[in-house]
Amino acid sequence: MTRRRGGTAHDPVEGGLTTTAAPTPAPATETAAEFRLTAMDRCDSCRAQAYVAAEVNGTELLFCAHHARKYEVKLRAVATTWHDETARLEEEQTRVGISA
Ligand SMILES: [Zn+2]
């Protein structure tokens, strides 16, 4: 029998150490005014989350990134306003990829 347990079971850190996380104040949401489309806004074509809002004849049409791109040429020709938040998609995607 050469089997033996390495080290001791004592853990000097265990117990008595209560690190209360400092309540960091949430920074002011500066992007709130710039981005107004939320998860409640849905693409008129497929009900996916909308990232583009186009106003046509006084009516606001909402599109996901996919359909916004698909109809962009036609829409831009008739739309009075074009609100594009698809940059958020790219941001969110790159943020996920960051590991270091
Ligand atoms: Zn869509």
What does this structure look like?
The chain is an alpha+beta fold and 100 residues long. It is built from 2 helices and 3 strands, in the order E-E-H-E-H. It has helices spanning 65-78, 86-97; strands spanning 52-56, 59-63, 81-84. It has a 3-stranded antiparallel beta sheet. A hairpin with a 2-residue loop joins strand 1 and strand 2. The protein is elongated, with a radius of gyration of 25 Å. Zinc ion binds at residues 43, 45-46, 48, 63-64, 66-67.
List keywords for this structure.
2 helices, 100 residues, alpha+beta, three-stranded antiparallel beta sheet, 3 strands, single chain
Radius of gyration, CA atoms, in whole angstroms? 25 Å
Specify the helix fraction band. Answer: 25-40%
Sequence of strands across the biggest β-sheet: 2-1-3
Largest sheet: 3 strands, antiparallel
Q: Say which molecules are bound, naming each kind only once.
A: zinc ion
Structural class by helix and strand composition: alpha+beta
Strand content bin: 5-15%
N-to-C CA distance: 45 Å
Number of strands: 3
Quick one: overall form? elongated
List the helices and strands in order.
EEHEH
Number of helices: 2
Low-confidence stretches: 29-33
Average pLDDT figure: 80
